[in-house]
Amino acid sequence: MAAPTVSQRVMKGGEFLLESCRPEEVFTPAQLTDDQKLIGQTAAEFVEKEVMPLVPELEQHKEGLMTQLIRKSGELGLLSGGIPEEYGGTNLDKVSTTVLSEKLAAYASFAVTHGGQVGIGSLPIVYFGTEEQKKKYLPRIATGEIIGAYCLSESQAGSDALAARTRADLSPDGKHWVLNGQKMWITNGGFADLFTVFAKVGGEKFSCFLVERGTPGFSVGAEEHKMGIKGSSTVPIFFENAQIPKENLLHEVGRGHIVAFNILNVGRFSLGAYCVGGAKHMIVVSTHYAKERTAFGKAIAEFGLIQAKLAEMAIGTYAIESMLYRSAGMIEAATASAEHGGDRTARLMKVLEEYAIECSISKVYASEVVDRVVDEAVQIFGGYGFHEDYPVARAYRDSRVNRIFEGTNEINRMLIIQMLMKRAMGGALPLVPAALHLSEEVLSAPALEEPPEGPLGAELRMVEKAKKAFLLAAGTAVQKYRDKLAEEQEIVAALANVVMEIYAMESVALRAAQALARRDSAAPVMADVARLIVYDGMDRIEKEARTALAASAEGDTLRTQLAVLKRFCRREALDTIRARRNVAAAVLAANRYPFENR
């Protein structure tokens, strides 16, 4: 399938902190093509008709049932989006695969299983496999004939993947790699046919191998007893002198980290898409229940505090949806502009590395939003929300792992700032000149501001001030700690929180402004959402920036910087109660998330 024309401006990774976009330069769900909507509809109907009726049996691990569903989804083409056409795939663009992931997320255990197949289970071969490896495995992965799994984590090497102890040695005859060790938390491991395994050649060179089920010396442990996602398979994997054909080395010896980290970037972004879908499903479930449940003579949906919860669920979902599709558009636009010349894999890797910051932002922000959404869903259901006969109890348990998957949120917060600083020091992102320019601006007399233009002009101006707040806090922290900043994890986390709030604020404001420009019927409520996100986001930015400044300066210098920060974060009061009521009314009128494809 050919990629659609994307109007997205091609920006560098992290450049949103320094440059402004016009509303028409960002990709939003309103720009989805009919083909992309059809992909989403097909996926949503499959989950509704084929998966949801079987949830009780899937939760009990009925043998063969999840495998059967994965293969049935393969018959519909729901497994082949990331695979090139020459290997039996449909080679969907980034926006289309994002839609697909989102629409498959109503039942988390199926979403996890699907992600293990189409993402981390197959993309290592797509990006790094030899021609022979691709021809051998990809056509069968695309149909679901074989199911994939990704074996990176170990009992002593979770977030610190490079501390892996699994070892690979070349056999004396040079025909096999001999693997010894153990892997933990392997999604799809109980029924997978092909395993992407990371091990250290000679105990030192981190490398990657393709291991088939049935290999002598390879064995699968019992299913783990998990808090949530009980319908998915999660097992330990063991290697005891397992002999892997020499040609099953993936990529190059000592280059396994390139495979691991690039595939994790993809996984982080996809996880954000699954979180969007999960949040939307919870809004549907909660809205219906709030209308049906009565208390004190009326439906609880009529109570202000219940409406506030429904509004907050929709507001958070709008934020992560806006961020995700903006990022998908950027990735797709960058991929399209890099289509000519050079090695295809190298081009794809370059794009993935370019937007690693945005991928981490999507993962962290979306996983924390969906946790808040399911928490509010349980509260709306009250006592029934605590009962396993109702779907929100399962969703509450299922959502918690998202903050651990694909690198914990703590690790990803560290990565956001580390990657920003690496790009700044390498000259790819002019953060240092921007911080120096801000210092000159702070020392000069404040300039008179022109009145903001447009219905969301004030909000977009606040976004620009938020960027200055980040430069102020980050510049001060770097000046004090220099190359030791990474060791000050609390400061790094505070700065990462500011970065994520900025991306969320700008993404929603640009999307709402775009809707206002085309006179979308939902645009007035979308504008309320944007105002709320920017208004509340500035509170959080001020708090996090103050935390970083107080840990990086003192005395008169700190007092001056805090005064500057206060000036950056100053804004007019907003009637947040009225705005949230407007959002809640839209949710209740639609009986679902009210901004679908808008």
Structure description:
It is a single chain. With 598 residues, this protein is of the alpha+beta class. The protein contains 19 helices and ten strands. The strands form two sheets. Strands 1, 2, 3, 4, 5, 6, 7 and 8 form an eight-stranded mixed sheet that branches. Strand 2 and strand 3 form a beta hairpin. The radius of gyration is 24 Å and the shape is globular. The N terminus is likely disordered.
Summarize the structure.
The chain is of the alpha+beta class and 598 residues long. 56% of the residues lie in helices and 10% in strands.
Class from secondary-structure proportions: alpha+beta
Overall body shape: globular
What is the succession of H and E elements? HHHHHHHEEEEEEEEHEEHHHHHHHHHHH
User: Low-confidence segments, ≥5 residues, pLDDT <50?
Assistant: 1-6
The first-level CATH class of the domain at 430-580 is given as: Mainly Alpha
Based on the coordinates given, report the CATH architecture of the domain at 430-580.
Answer: Up-down Bundle
Task: Kindly state the percentage of residues in helix.
Answer: 55-70%
Q: Oligomeric status of the shown chains?
A: single chain
| CATH fold call of the domain at 430-580 | Butyryl-CoA Dehydrogenase, subunit A, domain 3
Number of strands: 10
CATH superfamily of the domain at 430-580: Butyryl-CoA Dehydrogenase, subunit A, domain 3
Strand percentage? 5-15%
Structural key phrases:
single chain, 598 residues, alpha+beta, Butyryl-Coa Dehydrogenase, subunit A, domain 1, Butyryl-CoA Dehydrogenase, subunit A, domain 3, eight-stranded mixed sheet, two-stranded antiparallel ribbon, 10 strands, globular, disordered N terminus
